[in-house]
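= Protein in question =
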Amino acid sequence: MNNSNTFGPLMETASLTWRDGQPVSGQFGDVYFSRENGLEETRYVFLQHNQLPGRFQQLSNNETFVIAETGFGTGLNFLAAWQAFQEHAPAGSRLHFVSVERYPLSTADLERALALWPELAQQARELVNNYPQPVSGCHRIVLDGGRIRLTLYFGDAVEAFEAMTFSADAWFLDGFAPACNPGLWQDLLIQQVRDHSHQGTTLATFTAVGRVRRALADVGFQMQRVPGFGPKRDMLRGDLEQATPRNTENAGHILVVGAGIAGAATARNLAGRGYRVTVADQGGGPGAGASGNPQGALYAKLGVQLNDQTRLALAALLHSQRFYPLAAPNAWHPTGLLMTGFSDQERERQQKFLAANTYPDTLLRAVNKDQASSLTGVTCPEGGLWFPDSGWLEPAVLCRQLLDHPNIRTEFGFRATRLLPCNNRWCLSGDGRQDLQADTVILAAGHLTRKLMPVTGEFRMKAIRGQITRLPERHLTQAPNAVITGARYLNPPADGHVVTGATFDLRDPDPEVRADSHRENLDGLETMLPGLLAAPGMETEGISGRVSFRCTTHDYQPVVGPLVNGEGHTLGGAWLLTGLGSKGLMWAPLMAEYLADVITGEPQALPRALAGRVSPERCLAATRKTGSPA
């Protein structure tokens, strides 16, 4: 993937000057909207000439309308479309808005610009509160309780539309005037507009430049020159008539197997989109497996190189930081998180990371040992990286809250034994229970997923044992007020106890809590924070803990997408979401969002390169020329 910034993910933000209280681009020397009335210009050019009020009214229940835009700017077009959708569309329908911005506004400038439109104050406030960090790449923002989705790509428009997967019902061809920003209005971009359209797609643009009109006509749009807004004489609108109809998906009744964070997040996402979902789990309630620990830290260990693996983890971290405060505020504790430089190797890695990348200080920043000690409330022998928007969660509480939705039915104590296709549906059998049937099935059962997959072949997935240690707070000389990670993680106290861990035990199937694992956790904690334990070398008797098994893959990336057999052929209506390893709290929200996009045929939250990183097919073991497993 091409980078819009040559030095890490930090984007160059828009340079604004303010003339008579209105923003003007320093990069392009042009206004963001009409000085006469920017909101009325948007309504006239983009809403009226795409016939949006009437098209919104005609939507059926649970239908999604997709608008795409070539320049997000201040977000005024988006907010106007959102407001019109609220006014005209039926309650069960949804709006998905896809936009690109090469020079994103700072949050402060965005707030100042949108304050010019008091009638959009409610929408503007929600957008500002969820506006992404100035980081290059694709950001998914869920608004209005899930009724509005914004996919906002910070970067070059041609790069963005080449990377993204969506089909637009209407286009807002916005951006600065062709004379000011010729790089936007190039033939390659016009072809991408056509490639992301279908039969019946419309477009509108404020410009009437003949070169733009001819380019759109050349790719198949029936173009018209119509009167422009205010003193502007002309503008353009168009329709695409000769094209493939839009492919609409209907997943029917959905069965999710697994009620941990992966299954719960997926079920809630699909239920919020109007689908009926049944969740089956062998436990007695939500989060009975690896998601049942009393506390879990939300963090990502970002790579030194800004490659697709790092971008995927970064996108997941940023999305989860937006997701949890809204989805489960009672289970989310935004304390901040310190990633310590606890060893020579880790300090060297962090130094290389900082030398090779620039990140927004609001996302992460380097701190020395005194700053680290002040931020965490405990004496830190080393500094590290401080993530101000991270923290910790109560996973079981989180899963329970996610599954509390009228479109979700739960089947606990369901020990699944077999999944088979049956009369064009999927049938899940369980010990002593009536079979469950559904049109679509999603396997999100962690390390148990592989034995439920009705396929042959070797898939590179494995279970890794992890034991946590839960200590009474009195066993510490100081109690942290933020999450600390390094040789182990340590969470702030909850109910008079702190949680540390976890072990990483390959090829160890023992489900029992063991003293040697407690010892390993305590030794790791002492190494990371010397003197924190009141009695180093303390006995482990009376200390509680918990064992769970994480599902990981050969490359430690999630598995999200259609179920494939040993030959790589997909099985219709069957999907996977597993392989989240020890970072389930980080991965689950974005992976659930992406999977729901794919299942329902809506614009996808992951660019194609990142989607390839989580493809189930990559986990098929290589085969010899004879066809036997390698």
